Amino acid sequence: MLLKNVEDSFAKFFPNKFSKDKYNVSNKKYTISNGDIVIAAITSCTNTSNPSVIIAAGLLAKKACELGLKIKPWVKTSFAPGSKIVTEYLKESGLDYYLDKIGFNLVGYGCTTCIGNSGPIDSDIENTINNNDIITSSVLSGNRNFEGRIHRAVKANYLMSPPLVVAYSFIGNIDIDISKDVIAKDSEGRDIYLKDIWPSDSQIQEYVNEYVNREMFAKKYKDVFLGDASWQNIKVTKTELYNWNENSTYINNPPYFEKIKDKKTALEPIIDANILAVFGDSITTDHISPAGDIAKDSPAAKYLSKKSVKEVDFNS
Question: How far is CA 109 from CA 71, 82, 118, 135, 166, in A?
Answer without folding.
Answer: 23, 5, 12, 29, 19
